[in-house]
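Hey all, quick one. A colleague (J.T.) asked me to put the adenosine-5'-triphosphate job into the tracker so the inputs and the structure tokens live in one place instead of scattered across chat threads. No bug as far as I know, just bookkeeping. Sequence used:
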Amino acid sequence: MYRLIAPAKINLFLQIVGDYLPDPRYHELVMVMQAITLADGISLSPLSQEVIVLTCDHPQVPTNSHNLAYKAAALMQSQFPGQGGIEIHIDKRIPIGAGLAGGSADAAAVLVGLDILWDLGLTQGELQGLGGQLGADVPFCIGGGTALALGRGDDLTPLPDLDHVVLLLGKFTNISVSTPWAYQTYRQTYGASYAQTPVQQEKKRQQGGSRELLQALSQKDIPTLAQALHNDFEAIVLPEYPLVAQLRQAFVDAGAMAAMMSGSGPTVFAIAESQGQAETIKTQVQGQFADQGLDIWLAQTCPHGVRLVAQA
Ligand code: ATP
């Protein structure tokens, strides 16, 4: 049995530049992705018959072929036939439909785990190529750490590690945001002003504010980085879910350096100066939203992606 951890991600920066010109069903993005210590646990055991059996301790997660981890195992079986079946168990710790790429992290762990279990010797680039067939966030989840993600979000460049930055993550149990809904609504609202040519897109990228964030990252200047956080999805998700906007404000009012929604939401993350301050902020904000089903997790930025943690 192999046990892996599959870290979630947050977006420190997310700009929607326009249509992805090679295929306008997608969007052209500028993202800075960051792995965090909040992670699912994935256990893999070989089976003699060529089947995939998946279990999960969370009742809302599908255990059939709709599960992205199942799809990852099926992709590996089709690419490397004759290796036998696989039993997958997911310890779900990453909230679902949260903008934290939980499903993508699980899929990434299955790709990495089967590469080890089947002794395939695939490179990270080869694993990321397979991951890209499953979803735009999967390639990032494999290597984790900090990365610039361009194109559809799968054109990755590693960035300097951002280690041990203390984070709070807040999500209301009964609010989930569908990523397709978020993209569709963004297109309906802002599509008319999308950059239409490579030159226009480059200009929009230059003006988008990523440069300030990248510079702060390279200097490990956390206060400046906190001020440079940006997420275009906030413009459509926050008006639709006022409670999420209130949570974002509550983190800042409680003393966080900055707070922002991750991905298409609705999770809001906040940067704290220390673990002690994070605990204080957590208590204050939880009190403010008592009876509204708010979960708050403490986490840190994490310099890696999927990791094998045990082999039995
Ligand atoms: P992203 O940030 O990539 O948009 P997310 O965090 O918003 O992802 P997920 O938690 O990955 O969303 O999953 C969204 C939906 O995908 C869920 O409603 C669930 O039905 C389905 N799903 C498929 N596989 C998984 C999985 N392994 N874990 C969680 N959800 C999964």
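Adding what we noticed when we looked at it: The chain has one domain: 1-312. Residues 216 and 224 are 6 Å apart (CA to CA).
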